[in-house]
Write a structure and sequence with these properties.
Shape of chain B: globular
Radius of gyration of chain A: 21 Å
Strand order of the largest sheet of chain A: 6-7-8-3-9-10-12-11
Strand content of chain A: 15-25%
Order of helices and strands of chain B: HHHHHHHHHHHH
Helix content of chain A: 25-40%
Number of helices of chain A: 10
Strand content of chain B: under 5%
Largest sheet of chain B: none
Oligomer: heterodimer
C-alpha cells in the first residue's frame, strides 16, 4: 500500500444523454507505484482521457457518471471526497497536462501570471516576492528564460507553450502528474525535446506519472508499466518488458505493433488492424475486440474473456485462458522489429 | 521587447508598468480613440468646472424679455422659452445627464454581466431560472417598465438610475452568457479546473477577461443609447423634474419651438451626439488596445 500512489479498481464510466448511453470505461483496474510512470496506450476513443478525467473528477457534470469501482489516491478514496477537498487536491497533489498546448493557455494572461495563479490557487498567503521567485524557478526548470514571463501565450511557439503548460502543472510539485497525450500536437523534433524534459523532471522531482498516449515509442522511452486500452477495457497490462518482449500477447497489442513502420524491413506494407473500434453505445457481447480479431473463435463472440495473470503480465484473451498451450500463436514479429528500432 | 528581456531583476515592477504602457501605446495609435478621449475629457472638464464658467443661477433665472433670443456674445447658445440662458442650462444639465448615463451604464453592465456569467457558467437549473425570469422581464416593454418604476418610486436621481439599470441590464445577460458558454468550453478553463481553481476564480480571471472586448463595445454603445433613453423619459415627464436642467428635458421643451428657435434644440442635441460619439470612439480604441493578440 505504501508504494502505491494511485490504485484504480473496476472503474466504470458512462456518458448518459437522453438518447443513448456511451460506455466509455468498463471495469478497468490499474496501479501506479510511487515514482513510477504508467503508460496508458490505445486508439482514439478507447477511454484513456475519460479515465484521466475521472481521477480528477472532472467528467462533464451533465453527462458523465462513474458507475462503479474505486479510485484510491495515496490511500484516500477520490470518488467520495467533497468538492472543496477535490479543489485542494487538483493541481496541488494531482496535476494534469492537456493535449493541445495551443488552447490550454489563457490568451489574455501573461505566462508568468498563469503560473503564479497555479501557485496562488493553493496558497493564497504566499508573498509576492516568493511567488515571483517560484515562477522564475519553474520557468527555468522547463528551459524557458525567466524574463519571458511577461510575454503572452501567442508569443510562444507550440513546443514552448507545452513547456509552459508543464511548468504550470509542476509549479506546485504534485505527487502525481497526468499527462494526456502531451506531445501529440507537437512536431517530432520538439516531441523528443519535451519528452526528454518530462523524463528528466520526473526523475528529479520524483513525481509519479500517468502517461496517456497512442505512441508506443513514448511508452518504450519513459514508462515503467503499461496498460493497453481498447474500447474502455485494459486488454493487456504489465511492465514495459512484458509488453515489448516477444511472447504471449493480446491480439490487439500485436495489431498495434504491426501498425508501426519499421526502418529495417524493406518495402513491407504496414499491417493495420482492420475495421474500427466498436460503437461504445452498443459494445459486443463477448470480447470487445472480437469483431476485428484475426484469431477470433466462437466463444469470443459470446463470453467475455477473463484476465490471465503471469507475474506482472496480465492478458484478457480466450487464447490464453486456462491451458498454457497455444502460446506459440501469440508470438509476433512486430515486437522484435520494434525492439530493434528502439535499440538503435 | 529586447529591453524587457534584459530587465529580469526588476521584472515585477517593470511588468506592471509595461502592461499599462503597452495598452496606452496601442490606444494612442488609434487616432479616432485619441480624438474621442480628448473630446470626452473636454466635455467632462467643462461639466465639472461648470460653476466656474457660468453660475448655476444663470440656468434657472428667467428673463422673459429675452425669450427665445438667438445666440449672442452675452448668451452664447441663446435663450430658451422661459428666457433662461441655454449655455448655462446645457453645461449644468450635462452634470445630471452624463452622470446618470455613465452610472446607469456601469450598473447595468455589472448586474447584467454578473448574472450572465453565472447563468452561462453553471448552466442547468441556475441557467434556466435566470434566463426564464429574464424572458418574463423582457416581455414587458422597456418604456412601460421604466414608467412603472419611476411612477412607483418617484422621479429623482437614484430612482432614475434604478429604472435605467433595470431597462438595460437584460442585453448584457444574454451577451455575456453566450460568451461564457463559448469560453467555458476552452481548454484553458478545463486546465484551470484541473489545477484546482474554484468557480469564482475561473470566472473572474479566465472567462471574463476574455469576454471583456465584447462587453466594452456593448457598454460604450449603451452610453449613447442611455443618454437618448433618458431624454425620452424626460420628454414623457418622467425624467428629472423641471426646472432642473437636463439635456433630454431641454430637448423636449425645445420641440414646441423647433421652427421659431432651432438653436434651442441644436445645442443640447449636439451635446448628446458629441458625448455619445466620444464614448464610442474610446470604446473602439480600448477594445483593440486591450487585446494582446493585436500587439504589434
Amino acid at each position: 500500500m505504501k508504494d502505491t500512489i494511485l490504485e484504480i479498481k473496476d472503474l466504470s464510466v458512462i456518458y448518459k444523454t437522453d438518447l443513448e448511453t456511451v460506455e466509455a470505461v468498463n471495469g478497468i483496474s490499474l496501479t501506479i507505484g510511487k515514482g513510477k510512470t504508467y503508460g496508458l496506450v490505445g486508439e482514439t476513443g478507447a477511454g484513456k482521457t475519460t479515465t484521466a478525467l475521472s481521477i480528477l473528477r472532472l467528467l462533464p457534470a451533465a453527462t458523465g457518471r462513474v458507475l462503479g469501482g474505486s479510485i484510491q489516491f495515496d490511500g484516500e478514496d477520490v470518488l467520495s471526497l467533497s468538492e472543496s477537498d477535490m479543489c485542494a487536491l487538483r493541481g496541488r497533489r494531482i496535476a494534469m497536462v492537456f493535449q493541445d498546448p495551443m488552447t490550454s493557455l489563457n490568451p489574455v494572461m501573461t505566462v508568468g501570471d498563469q503560473i503564479a495563479e497555479a501557485l496562488l490557487v493553493h496558497d493564497r498567503k504566499m508573498g509576492k516576492e516568493e511567488v515571483e521567485r517560484r515562477v522564475e524557478e519553474t520557468l527555468s526548470m522547463v528551459g524557458i528564460l525567466p524574463s519571458r514571463k511577461i510575454e503572452y501565450p501567442h508569443q510562444f511557439s507550440g513546443g514552448m507553450k507545452q513547456r509552459v503548460v508543464i511548468a504550470m502543472a509542476l509549479a506546485c510539485e504534485p505527487e502525481l502528474l497526468i499527462a494526456d497525450e502531451p506531445t501529440t500536437a507537437l512536431d517530432v523534433t520538439i516531441q523528443a525535446q519535451v519528452l526528454m524534459m518530462i523524463k528528466e523532471l520526473r526523475n528529479r522531482l520524483g513525481t509519479s506519472m500517468l502517461m496517456i498516449t497512442h505512441d508506443l515509442g513514448i511508452v518504450a522511452k519513459i514508462c515503467d508499466d503499461v496498460g493497453v486500452m481498447y474500447a474502455g477495457e485494459i486488454v493487456e497490462s504489465g511492465s514495459v518488458e512484458d509488453i515489448f518482449s516477444p511472447g504471449r500477447h493480446h491480439p490487439y497489442t500485436e495489431g498495434l505493433f504491426g501498425s508501426i513502420p519499421d526502418l529495417k524491413s524493406r518495402a513491407r506494407r504496414l499491417t493495420p488492424i482492420a475495421g474500427l473500434m466498436p460503437d461504445p453505445t452498443a459494445l459486443p457481447q463477448g470480447c470487445v475486440f472480437a469483431p476485428r480479431c484475426k484469431k477470433c473463435q466462437e466463444r469470443c463472440k459470446t463470453v467475455r474473456p477473463k484476465a490471465v495473470t503471469e507475474g506482472t503480465h496480465r492478458i484478457a484473451c480466450h487464447l490464453y485462458g486456462g491451458q498454457a498451450a497455444g502460446s506459440a500463436q501469440g508470438i509476433s514479429g512486430g515486437q522484435d522489429a520494434f525492439r530493434r528500432k528502439e535499440e538503435q | 521587447m529586447t529591453e524587457q528581456r534584459n530587465a529580469t531583476p526588476a521584472a515585477e515592477v517593470f511588468k506592471k508598468q509595461s502592461q499599462a504602457k503597452e495598452i496606452w501605446r496601442r490606444f494612442k495609435k488609434n487616432r479616432g480613440a485619441v480624438i474621442g478621449l480628448i473630446l470626452l475629457s473636454a466635455i467632462l472638464l467643462i461639466i465639472i468646472f461648470a460653476d466656474l464658467i457660468v453660475p448655476y443661477e444663470q440656468a434657472t433665472v428667467q428673463d422673459m424679455s429675452q425669450k427665445l433670443a438667438t445666440p449672442s456674445p452675452e448668451h452664447w447658445f441663446g435663450m430658451d422659452s422661459y428666457g433662461r440662458d441655454l449655455f448655462a442650462r446645457v453645461i449644468h444639465g450635462g452634470r445630471t445627464s452624463l452622470s446618470i448615463a455613465l452610472l446607469a451604464t456601469l450598473s447595468s453592465c455589472v448586474v447584467g454581466s454578473a448574472l450572465g456569467a453565472v447563468a452561462g457558467y453553471f448552466g442547468g437549473w441556475v441557467d434556466n431560472l435566470i434566463m426564464r425570469s429574464l424572458d418574463i422581464f423582457m416581455s414587458v416593454p422597456d418604456i412601460l417598465f421604466t414608467m412603472a418604476v419611476v411612477f412607483a418610486l418617484g422621479a429623482n436621481f437614484t430612482n432614475l438610475l434604478i429604472a435605467l439599470t433595470l431597462a438595460y441590464f437584460t442585453n448584457y445577460v444574454r451577451l455575456v452568457r453566450s460568451q461564457v458558454l463559448n469560453l467555458s468550453e476552452q481548454d484553458y478553463v478545463e486546465a484551470a479546473r484541473a489545477g484546482g481553481a474554484g468557480s469564482a476564480r475561473i470566472i473572474i480571471s479566465h472567462i471574463l477577461p476574455n469576454a471583456i472586448g465584447v462587453i466594452i463595445v456593448n457598454t460604450t454603445l449603451n452610453v449613447a443609447k442611455i443618454i437618448l433613453y433618458e431624454s425620452t423619459l424626460s420628454f414623457l415627464g418622467l425624467g428629472m423634474p423641471p426646472p432642473s436642467p437636463e439635456w433630454g428635458l431641454i430637448l423636449s421643451e425645445a420641440r414646441e419651438f423647433m421652427r421659431r428657435a432651432p438653436h434651442m434644440m441644436l445645442f443640447p442635441a449636439m451635446a448628446i451626439v458629441l458625448s455619445a460619439c466620444s464614448v464610442n470612439l474610446i470604446g473602439d480604441g480600448l477594445r483593440d488596445a486591450l487585446d494582446p493578440h493585436l500587439k504589434s
